[in-house]
Write a structure and sequence with these properties.
By secondary structure, this protein is mainly β. The protein has strands at 5-8, 11-22, 28-37, 44-50. It binds zinc ion. Residues 38, 40-41, 43, 61-62, 64-65 line the site of zinc ion (ZN). Residues 50-74 are annotated as: Disordered.
């Protein structure tokens, strides 16, 4: 799955790492680490999503420019 590229609203996300996490019920969850460029400053940043999740609504900004509830103006 590493190297997988996805587009979300014109922004590019690439899987750079994969890790496993044990859930509370003992089952294993695969975590994908995505890398993208901040919509504000263009700096690369990372985020994680569960591989099992069909929903893909990642952050579009780095930690510094993250403002919850605010959408990127296009
Ligand atoms: Zn930024």
């Amino acid at each position: 799955m590493i190297g997988l590229v996805r587009d979300f609203r014109g922004q590019r996300y690439e899987v750079v790492e994969k890790s496993e996490r044990t859930r509370r019920d003992g089952t294993l969850a695969i975590i994908l680490h995505w890398e993208s460029m901040c919509a504000d400053c263009g700096e690369p940043f990372r985020l994680t999503t569960p591989a099992a999740s069909s929903k893909f609504e990642p952050n579009r900004r780095c930690q510094k420019h993250k403002r919850p509830g605010q959408r990127v103006k296009s």
